[in-house]
Design a protein that fits this description.
The complex is a heterotrimer. In chain A, 30% of the residues lie in helices and 23% in strands. By secondary structure, chain A is an alpha/beta fold. A ten-stranded mixed sheet of chain A has the order 5-4-1-2-10-9-3-8-7-6, with helices on both faces. In chain A, strand 9 and strand 10 form a beta hairpin. By secondary structure, chain B is an all-alpha fold. Chain B is globular. The chains are: A alpha/beta, B mainly alpha, C mainly alpha.
């Protein structure tokens, strides 16, 4: 039976997949305000978090520069397949920079360069023979402000498969599947030919997610996807992320700690350190662990300070 | 010396330094006069041309050819057809080249490199070069490659070179107005930059591009100076029949007739002016309609 | 056929495989050479480069015949001679008469266009209500769109006989630099007006409000605060108007005159550089002859003069853009 046929427009009906990252400890992680319903035991087992993430993207000693300014220094971490990983930290700590580097969207900024190694399935994505277009087809991105194209809803979804040369037998089916997976099909199935700009903010963001899904990536990057949305739309997107985890790997940047605690399996905390010589702030990775552990028993004092609100 | 108390208690009448002062009003009147003068000039010009030319807005104007000796039945048929043929050819050359150059400069070129800066300054310069110089350029070019000077193709080349900088500049502005998020959304899906431009950016910028192009073409329609240098166009009495055919255009015909001593030639010249202004009005109205109806406000 | 399966089914189409082994990852090497795209990029780059070629072409096209010309006529005689009679048996090639013709028409034109253009700009930018602006700005654009040959007709058929001879009772002939200059001025009013208006509206409101708050009236605010703040843009507009006046052909060809002489008063006729080019070109001009080369020598001079003016204007516009 398809999971998705039970989804309706309203959130939190029926058996929900609660976003608590692991099944072991019964207590809620510190710092989360909302009380989500307890997951059923079956769901718990499905989301048993491995001790070590099975790597899909691997960062080793990564520094990111804009011309001479070092924006991010020495990041080493592994993003696990079929997990939701959150990057959190105060503003200016480089988390969006790191995210954009993972699918080479950072290339668009003049003067941006990456040292160290970011590898996707053991292939260095900045290698000499690597085509950034191919990288982006495997690693998609959803932006902070929903950015649908000025076309119809149908055309928005159909655009990706068409331009990447995907072998398409029936575009209607692809559009329907993508919209269904993004939990948007029921709301728009009667108005596929209408302009995407007629949708609400939350719907537009789900449209952007559907658009990304349509090209069948393996990883979906999300740069503060809910910061432009109201709380109800945010909750829907978080539910969606939870469902998408089955098929995809999700890496999300968020400045909302509670969101990270709600949805993420693992969390990486970044901070910005003023450099000695110039005074510019360089981002660095402080701690990276299972979300449960980060929020209840962080290893580093800076993480503790941030999570408990002492700074941020 | 007025003390503070005295000033504060003085009545708040409109004083000498206020908006009602003599110089202020005089200033405002001068400004009105300036605007009124410009408008009066425009009105006089249009009325003069219309009154002079209206009697000659007859069938002969459109169906007959020019004449050196009988102005009463001279017609602008060759000129009207020639203008249309030249403008279409100009459009076919200038639009693809102009849009392509604008796309490259706006979407692909790194603005910090020196040759891109050179191209920018160069374009601004070319936009201000006198029109007649473009005729001289085309004459020299035609001579070098063995193209005849007095043919439709050469005329179209001269006009296309004239309006190319304008088309490039207005297309760039239209492309610039498309928000970056659209491009980023497309690239993030795995589209190439070229696919992004062709399928997203350029279609979104199309109303602005169309408006700028139509206005540039309407300018080309009214130009005579660049074509004069191609020689021998002022007296043509046949329909143009191809790119390599001799031709004349409305502005040149008007120039030729206006320069004749007989008053009747002035009259048919003003009739041709009415036709020319009518064509320009249609083109400009089209551009404005496109801008108002289709222009996207992001 | 794509399927609506729950997670774990195989995906349709070409997509990455899902696996737990990192070695299974799909290739991110360049998949296809994308030759079509390279061709298109080549076309785009060539189009952009075309503009540079055009400039080079202009210089070459002007230089080649001009150099031929200067083999027969010395540069000194050309630039400083006062008799221009290139087609006569007793020919002279001093270009100063043409320069005086251009000078007079330009000066008269600017004398008309600068006050009217600036006045219109100040009114529209500082005083006019939005509805007034919306009505009259298009009128200016119409003025800007009228072809110059129509202005030439206007000068010859109306300004010279009716305005100058009848209304103002000046004794001018059919041709005069005054008639041509006045109409030239009318033609460049929109250029000065619209660019100056842009410069004025770009001045931030805070400056105006600061002045008004001190008790100055609008006239003082405009003249003493806004105008100086916008001076780069206004200067740029005047210089651009100057460039257009110098390069304009049809008006002066029709109304200024066809005889080159050292012009010394507005009511006399004369010929401008552009007028000479137009007149000679409409005659039979065979390449290789001295007449043809003379054309290009004058054209070269014209190009150099407008180039200098344009460079000044571009610099001024850059300073105006940087200011805000």
């Amino acid at each position: 039976m398809s999971l998705f046929s039970t989804r309706t427009a309203t959130p939190q009906t029926g058996p929900t997949m609660a976003p608590t990252p692991d099944s072991a400890a019964p207590s809620e992680p510190a710092g989360t305000g909302q009380n989500r319903p307890r997951p059923d035991p079956l769901a718990d087992q499905r989301h048993k978090l491995a001790d070590k993430p099975v790597p899909v993207i691997d960062c080793e000693n990564v520094d990111i520069y804009y011309s001479d300014f070092r924006a991010v220094s020495d990041v080493t971490m592994v993003f696990g397949v079929n997990e939701i990983t959150a990057l959190i930290g105060p503003s200016g700590c480089g988390k969006s920079t790191v995210l954009r580097s993972l699918n080479r969207m950072n290339d668009l900024i003049p003067g941006a360069r990456v040292t160290g190694c970011i590898s996707y399935h053991e292939q260095d994505i900045y290698g000499p023979d690597v085509d950034p277009i191919e990288v982006r087809r495997r690693i998609g991105m959803v932006f902070q402000k929903p950015n649908p194209f000025p076309k119809s809803i149908y055309a928005n979804i159909a655009y990706g498969p068409k331009v990447i040369g995907m072998d398409v037998k029936n575009m209607d089916d692809i559009v329907e599947e993508a919209l269904t997976r993004a939990a948007l099909w029921d709301e728009v199935k009667d108005k596929l030919k209408q302009s995407a700009y007629g949708l609400s903010g939350g719907q537009q963001q789900r449209l952007c997610i559907a658009r990304t899904i349509a090209v069948q990536p393996e990883v979906i990057l999300m740069d503060e996807p809910c910061s432009a949305l109201d709380p109800i739309a945010t909750a829907r997107i978080e539910d969606l992320m939870d469902e998408l985890r089955e098929e995809y790997t999700i890496i999300i940047v968020t400045h909302n700690m509670q969101q990270a605690a709600r949805v993420a399996d693992r969390t990486a905390f970044f901070t910005a350190r003023p450099s000695e010589d110039t005074g510019d702030r360089t981002g660095q990775l402080v701690e990276y662990d299972a979300t449960r552990k980060m929020f209840s028993n962080p290893g580093d004092q800076r993480t503790e300070d941030y999570i408990s609100g002492r700074f941020g | 010396m007025a003390t503070i108390g005295a000033v504060a208690t003085a009545p708040l009448r409109a004083g000498r330094a206020g908006e009602r002062s003599g110089t202020s009003i005089g200033f405002l009147v001068a400004l009105w006069a300036a605007l009124a003068f410009a408008l009066v000039c425009l009105a006089t010009l249009l009325v003069t041309a219309f009154i002079d030319g209206y009697p000659r807005l007859d069938g002969a104007l459109f169906t007959r050819y020019s004449s050196r000796v009988i102005p009463e039945t001279a017609g602008a048929r060759a000129a009207i057809l020639g203008s249309m043929m030249v403008i279409v050819t100009t459009a076919l050359m200038a639009i693809p080249l102009g849009v392509a150059a604008a796309v490259y400069l706006e979407e692909f070129a790194d603005p910090r490199r020196w040759f891109n800066k050179l191209i920018e300054v160069n374009l601004q310069n070319l936009a201000a070069v006198p029109a007649i110089v473009y005729g001289m350029l085309t004459a020299g070019f035609a001579l070098t490659v063995g193209l005849p000077r007095r043919v439709v193709l050469s005329g179209a080349i001269a006009l296309a070179l004239l309006i190319l900088p304008v088309i490039i500049i207005t297309t760039r502005e239209a492309l610039r107005s498309v928000p970056a998020e659209i491009r980023q959304g497309s690239l993030a899906l795995g589209a190439t930059p070229l696919q992004t431009v062709w399928r997203q950016t350029l279609p979104s910028a199309l109303p602005g591009v169309a408006t700028g192009t139509i206005l540039a073409l309407s300018r080309a329609l009214g130009e005579a100076a660049p074509l004069l240098l191609l020689g021998g166009l002022v007296f043509v009495t046949y329909d143009p029949n191809g790119l390599m055919s001799g031709f004349t255009t409305l502005p040149i015909q008007i120039f030729s007739w206006t320069g004749q001593p007989q008053v009747e030639f002035r009259q048919v010249a003003s009739a041709a002016i009415i036709v020319l202004l009518g064509l320009l009005l249609v083109m400009n109205a089209l551009a404005i309609v496109i801008r108002n109806r289709y222009q996207r406000h992001w | 056929m794509s399927t609506l399966t729950a997670g774990g089914g195989s995906s349709s189409g070409t997509g990455p495989r899902r696996g737990n082994s990192s070695i299974d990852g799909p290739s991110i090497q360049r998949q296809s050479a994308r030759y079509g795209e390279r061709l298109v990029m080549g076309f785009l780059i060539s189009s952009a480069g075309l503009s540079v070629i055009v400039t080079v072409g202009i210089v070459v096209a002007l230089l080649v015949p001009a150099l031929e010309f200067f083999r027969e006529v010395s540069v000194w005689d050309f630039l400083f001679g006062t008799r221009w009679a290139p087609t006569f048996a007793n020919s002279d090639f001093g270009v100063l008469p043409l320069i005086t013709g251009t000078f007079w028409t330009t000066v008269i034109g600017l004398a008309l266009a600068v006050p009217v253009g600036l006045g219109t700009a100040v009114y529209l930018a500082e005083y006019a209500r939005p509805r007034v602006r919306k009505t009259f700005k298009p009128a200016l654009e119409v003025l800007a769109g009228i072809p110059s040959v129509v202005y030439g007709y206007f000068a010859l058929a109306f300004v010279a006989p009716v305005v100058l001879n009848n209304l103002l009772s000046l004794e001018v002939g059919t041709y005069s630099v005054l008639a041509a200059g006045l109409v030239l001025g009318i033609m460049i009013i929109p250029t000065i007006a619209s660019l100056s208006e842009d410069a004025l509206t770009a001045v931030p409101q805070d400056l105006r409000q600061g002045s008004l708050a001190l008790g100055a009236n609008r006239m003082r605010t405009t003249l003493r605060v806004v105008f100086p703040a916008a001076i780069s843009g206004i200067a740029a507009s005047i210089v651009l108007g100057l460039s257009r006046a110098v390069g304009e052909t049809m008006i002066v060809a029709l109304a200024a005159g066809t005889q080159a002489r050292m012009v010394d008063s507005p009511t006399s006729n004369g010929q401008t550089m552009t007028g000479f080019i137009a007149q000679t070109a409409t005659g039979e001009s065979t390449p290789g002859t001295l007449t043809y080369n003379t054309l290009f020598a004058v054209g070269l001079l014209l190009f150099v003069i407008t180039l200098i003016i344009n460079i000044i204007s571009i610099r001024l516009v850059q300073r105006f853009r940087e200011a805000y």
